[in-house]
Amino acid sequence: MKFATKVIHAGIEPDPSTGAIMTPIFQTSTYVQAAPGAHKGYEYARTQNPTRSVLEKNLAALENGTDAICFASGLAAQDAVMKLLKSGDEVLAVNDLYGGSYRQMVRVWGQWGLKSRFVDMYDASKVEREISPDTKLLWLETPTNPMLNIVDIEAVCAVAKRRGILVCVDNTFASPYLQNPLDLGADIVLHSATKYIGGHSDVVHGCLVVKDASLAERLHFLQNASGAVPGPQDCFLILRGIKTLHLRVQRACENAAVIAEYLAAHPKVGKVYWPGFHDHRNHDIARRQMRMFGAMVSFDLKDNTVENATKVLRGTHLFSLAESLGGVESLIGHPASMTHASIPREERLKVGLTDSLIRLSVGVEDADDLVADLEGALGGGNCQNLALEQDSF
After folding, report:
1. Which end of the chain, N or C, is surrounded by fewer C-beta atoms within 10 Å?
2. Catalytic residue selected from 15, 42, 46, 57
């Protein structure tokens, strides 16, 4: 079954009681049993919910896995992965990653004896040299947040396999439409499904996808034991969003290519970070392991002061100033003060995340309108008062 068919049909059947083509929202906390232990596969809604079960089957199919485990958020999913470890174990993580992931590793799990180191993972041989006897988990993001760096998943997983180390890949920026880390050797794929998978900025959700049955069993246990599960309404919304995942991501990627080229040619723009550029670090690897180059673009201004960046951030109309990404609408953000504020400034600067870096999540609007919006902001005009012309259909 190809991807565009999977998003509509994989793991999804009409409701047997009514024939409803959309999976119902099973808004219940418990289930009646015919006798003690004699039930229909559902006992208590923290442990199982039919809406969530359908979503988990669908997500597993999208990532070419065998099991998916859903959580109340992406960070709740990360929390479950970290609980696979014990005090004294070490996580070796990519040195350019989401600020919330860094915060959880350092400030939450660090106090319980888990060690985290953040290293350059863009050369697999360097990763192997960084591995210590305590390293039990490699944590990858690719493309990374917010510098859009590319990690060679297959090469790093080969290193980990030789050393008996688990690999978790945060695939949020790519989505299952662009990249499938399990096919490249990863043990666990994580998504903040809030982003591209949900796609409409109306639900917070997270998931893990695996192929190994014993690993799936451990993660399902943690899901139930810790209780950070999504409600059935959230699962319904994610299922709804998935049906257009391929269409949304395709269009957003096409728009991002236009935006990246526009920014690269703009006289006021300095460095543009987008994996589709031939001179982007590990561009060839991105071409090999991704189907398109993603819809995230980051850039610095030539006069890269915070004041100038703020003018741009406040000067757009179609690009809304907000955290998050992956929705149908375009967003503009300031990682240093928003998504990555929890990472110490000196650590941010080491990977190129300057105080003036701007991050774009390019949506599915008309590309010409998005370019015009950025042109107004970069030109110093305030687009908040821009009257948008209505094109005829």
Report:
1. C
2. 46
> Which pTM value belongs to this model?
0.94
Taking the alpha carbons at both ends of the chain, their separation in whole angstroms is 34
The span from the CA of 189 to the CA of 65, in Å, is: 9
Per-residue pLDDT tens over the stretch 93-136: 999 999 999 999 999 999 999 999 999 998 999 999 999 999 99
Quick one: angle between helices 232-242 and 50-62, nearest 10?
30
Catalytic residue list contains 170: yes
Pairwise CA distance, residues 69 & 80, whole Å: 10
Kindly report, as residue ranges, where domains of CATH 3.40.640.10 are found in the chain.
Answer: 3-242
Long-range own/partner contacts, residues 215-222 (CB < 8 A, 24 or more apart): 215/187, 215/188, 216/66, 216/67, 216/69, 218/84, 219/67, 219/69, 219/80, 219/81, 219/84, 219/188, 220/67, 220/69, 222/80, 222/83, 222/84
In words, the CATH class of domain 3-242 is alpha beta
When the candidates are 3.90.1150.10, 2.40.10.220, 3.30.70.1520, 3.40.630.30, the CATH number that belongs to 245-385 is 3.90.1150.10
Per-residue pLDDT, 382? 39
State the Cα–Cα distance between residues 226 and 83, nearest whole angstrom: 10
Q: Could you tell me the pLDDT band of residue 376, with boundaries at 50, 70 and 90? A: very high
| 46 is known as an active-site residue | yes
Catalytic residue among 67, 170, 187, 234: 170
262 is catalytic: no
Nearest Cα to Cα of residue 5 among 50, 43, 53, 61:
61
